[in-house]
Amino acid sequence: DGVALKTVFEEISRQTGYRIQGEYPTQKMYTGTFTSYDLQEMLELVCLPMQLHYSIDKKQKVVTVQPPFNQ
């Protein structure tokens, strides 16, 4: 079981106020949980196991998520 990645990123956006954009497998399932609502921590918990890269633009409050560059 798990939650679709799209839903996970929507929740991160709701919790942090950051807009999440980019190319990622929206239907891929995430089975982890969050113990903190720290943006960086949540992104690492989601992106690292799925081999996704992300960048944070604090000024614009935008997170860009991308697949690995070598795929």
End-to-end Cα distance: 26 Å
- Order of H and E elements: EHEEHEE
- Major sheet details: 3 strands, mixed
Q: pLDDT average, as an integer?
A: 92
Describe this structure in words.
The protein has 71 residues and is an alpha+beta fold. Helices cover 30% and strands 25% of the residues. It contains two helices and five strands; from the N terminus they run E-H-E-E-H-E-E. Helix 1 (5-16) packs antiparallel against helix 2 (39-47).
Main attributes of the structure:
alpha+beta, 2 helices, 71 residues, two-stranded antiparallel ribbon, single chain, 3-stranded mixed β-sheet
Give a short synopsis of this structure:
This protein is of the alpha+beta class and 71 residues long. It has helices at 5-16, 39-47; strands at residues 3-4, 19-22, 29-30, 53-57, 62-66.
What's the structural blueprint in terms of helices and strands?
Elements: E1 3-4, H1 5-16, E2 19-22, E3 29-30, H2 39-47, E4 53-57, E5 62-66
Helix pairs in contact: 1-2
